[in-house]
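Thread: "does anyone have the structure for this chain?"

Original post by V.I.:
We have the sequence but no experimental structure in hand. Need at least a predicted one for the grant figures.
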Amino acid sequence: MEVSRRELLPNVYLTAVETDKFKSGVLSATLLTQLERSSASPNALIPSVLRRGTATLPDMSALQERLDSLYGAGMEPSVRRKGEIQLLSFRSSFCDERFLPGHEELCAPLASLLGEMWLRPETRGGLLRPDYVESERDKLVERIDGRVNDKISYALSRLLEEMCCFEDFGVSPLGTRDSAENIYYVNLTRRYRDLLATSPVELFYCGAMDADKVASHLTEAFLPLPRGEIDPELGTDIRMNTVEAEPRFFEEAMDVAQGQLALGFRLGKCMEEPDYAVLRVLNALYGGSVTSKLFMNVREKLSLCYYASSMLDAHKGVMAAIAGIRFDDRQKAQDEMLRQLDELRQGRFTDEELHSAKAHIASSLRSVGDTPGGLEDFYLDQTLLGLDYGSDELAALVEDVSAGEVAKAAGDIALDAAYFLRGEEKA
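Reply from O.Q.:
Generated one for you, tokens below.
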């Protein structure tokens, strides 16, 4: 597996993974933009609208017919958030040319189609089609409303909204319902053009083709990309201190049978020069694995919750822990979750616990290379974090993490906010 990175056009970069490991390949194009409350929903809507049709393939039927002719290739939009950067993508998956009759090349036509998806949408009078915008807008509103159906995900998103209410990190990558409802084809067209002119673009390829050939195909496909003034401040605002001197508490009532308790932490001074291997191990020890403190103690030993886990956003310097609990156990569960974090601060964990956490993270990192999609997401992460080593190198760093490094990093962590989703009181 050989990984290379190069600039094809101004602020247009290609990361290419040359490998014959897979029977399928991946080609993607991602626009990076600052996540902001005013533009999150319009940004999130744009890939879905563009997926409805292009200048030469004006509707989804024509587009699907073209993909079918390329041996059933896919071309799907996605919207992601990494820290306070919103990622708008099209990703194509396709059969590797080695397994096609006559080794027919798919990379060139798919690169061309990828460029057309971003640069030559189906329009009416130079504007995005009103019917496409209205249809996809309604679907976006449904997706935003549908977040409440997954109570774990909903509780975590509500925690971050309240905890980071003065920061763009509190904004969902889909934006808000009010913002989505007020999107119309004229203002969305304006936003689309602004994005093309001002967004850095990350291209990714994984497959057996020579990286130089891939670069040539993609350069030709994206040559018409308009380039304006690229935002030099694109990035994430890392706040090391809590918003207030005392942790804030937020509560919401809903018709639920199980409470959801979510705790939000700032990682503190360790984010001045973050060691991402140490932070991954810390999270795995706390709640990010089945041998973690939260799982083994709060759930298994004390039976204070139905499940418990933690997750880390290394881009933002934030960690969150969540537990499904009985309504009356909120304070007990919160106290115990905080006590387990204090155990890490004091270095009170066994060599076996540390080994299990490191093995869990190292294994997950090495499995990144098992799928082209996993590699794409990993290298996007690395780019935004400013890192240049591969998953195996990061796994080796994880295996070298010491107990003292974990305890030192944990010592900086502070609870910033807690959110509790409880049941409604019965009359």
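V.I.: this helps a lot. The longest helix spans residues 130-146.
O.Q.: and The radius of gyration is 23 Å.
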